[in-house]
Amino acid sequence: MRRLGVAALVGVLLLGACTGKPKGSEPAAGEGPYLKGSGTLRVLAGSELADLQPILDKARQATGVEVKLQATGTLDGVENVVSGNAAKSYDAIWFASNRYLQLHPGAGDRIGTATKIATSPVVLGLRESVAERLGWAGHRPTWSEIAVAAGEHKFTYGMTNPASSNSGFSALVGVAAALSGTGAALGTEQIAPLTPRLRAFFAGQNLTAGSSGWLADAFARNAVEKNDHAVDGLVNYESVILSLNASGKLPEKLSVVYPSDGAVTADYPLTLLAGESGQVAEPTRTNYAAIADYLRRPSVQQEIMARTWRRPAVPNLALAAEFGPKGGGSLPELPFPGKLEAADALIGAFGDDLRKPARTIYVLDLSGSMKGERIEGLKNALIGLTGADTSLSGQFSRFNGREQVLMVPFSTKPGQVSRFDVPEDNFQPTLEQIRAYAAGLKVSGDTAIYDALFAAYDQAAALARDDPDRFTSIVLLTDGEVTAGSRLDAFKARVPQLAKVPVFTILFGEGNVAEMQQIADVTGGRTFDARTGSLPAAFKEIRGYQ
Which of 16-20, 217-221, 361-365, 401-405 has the lowest mean pLDDT? Predict the structure, then answer.
């Protein structure tokens, strides 16, 4: 940890050894009095840390400090810190890892003390019967063995998008580092030679998502439904896999496979921001020290492990029996890229070269109510996805090489479908075609939402017959309620006969929130809220799920 000041630093580090749980605001026996603060500690955090809220509520009772979490995606969070914007609204950040952040020039001047709170390696969870069939129930395969088996279609899995989620990025880094076999940090020049082996690994991915939590929920839903898109396992945090096993949601538990050559581990560092002026106000420093001290106490570490299945960050605490590797053996830490160029090149290669390509169908409301700022917002959102958005998150959310993009405009009825096939190389001309299409959008007429969705599903089914090996998704943008054509009941009745394609709905304007949620729910998608934020931001966030 960097320097906090003597009193705060001593408070964070001098922890007792008792492992009893705190009751109310009384510290566990032998742990000493709690450090005190007052007011609020504003924290920009990864969305998965919402499961710590009950513990943070207890921290408030014990320390007098309320921790207010604001969820963010990995790249958006890093961009906010590097630009200095995070310090304007937050006192601290709490990401799964600071490794990628620290690769950015000047990042060290934006952050101060970092206190590790818990750890969780990114590993493979497989249905017990599949792990047994592959011989991995009693054997720890290497990532190379796992990649070969995935490439031969011996199992399938779900993983988050590395451009939007730390678990997916950690998996990508870990697999690439292990396959390189050098034991050293991956360099940009090593990515191209690894492409065939990495493509084999990602050939087994049948489920994607922009967050670990949504991925886990989608996996559980598919496991119960046993539909054609059911997958055999997850590449995710160990904590997510163990939480799923403990939830009772799965018809068959997951066997945790700890690769013998190691993993990349999240360490969840609660990190003090340097402040707008580069200085940290003393009350903020005090509040941070009080919360860090509370969360690092052995009794609280035990509670974090019991509630969230993350490993303790303090030494000499016994792990629950569910943690592995079983039968002894270590889990080496695989090296993280040492340069920003290598990390960014790996993320870019994933989208354009390594992953299973996407088929993305946009169902766009061009009714009369979309005139003015709304249609301009839609144009800007689509144009941003063609590479015009040069922000950190924007550069990794553009349309990818090998992606198939379809536009289904609608008003009183569905309009003419436009299709754009982004090539593997030299995709700029195609991106410019999409940009020109977006710039030419015009509005008029009524709102036939469900007729347009049916048209999108017809396109998805027809294209899948000739080219089934793609991640297919539908994005629905509308700013109002249906005023023409089919209604929600007719759509819900036909869903079982439609292709298994999720619909990601955007809450916008005066759109019917309840209906948008139902569309997402019955198709296995989710909603994204653009009512208080920007439409381009919602479109970028959805890219993590496509």
Answer: 16-20
Residue 8 has pLDDT above 50, yes or no: no
Contact call for residues 303 and 144 (beta carbons, < 8 A): no
Give residue-wise pLDDT tens across range 22-53. Answer: 344 688 877 999 999 999 999 999 999 999 99
For tokens 């998965």, the residue is: 48
Q: How many CA atoms within 13 Å lie on the side-chain side of 86?
A: 32
| Contact assessment for residue 255 and residue 172, using Cβ atoms and an 8 Å cutoff | no
pTM for this prediction: 0.92
State residue 1's pLDDT score.
34
**Sign of the alpha-carbon torsion through 544, 267, 178, 139:** negative
SS3 track for 265-297: EECCEEEEECCCCCCCCHHHHHHHHHHHHHHHC
CB 233 within 8 A of CB 141: no
Mean pLDDT of the chain: 92
- Find all residues with CB under 8 Å of 42, minimum gap 6, and list them: 68, 70, 89, 90, 91, 92
Rounded distance between C-alpha atoms, residue 284 and residue 41, angstroms: 7
What integer pLDDT is reported at residue 64 of this predicted model? Answer: 98
> From residue 77, how far is each of 98, 340, 515 by CA, in Å?
11, 16, 31
Q: If phi over 0 gives left and psi between -120 and 50 gives alpha, with beta otherwise, what is residue 32? A: left
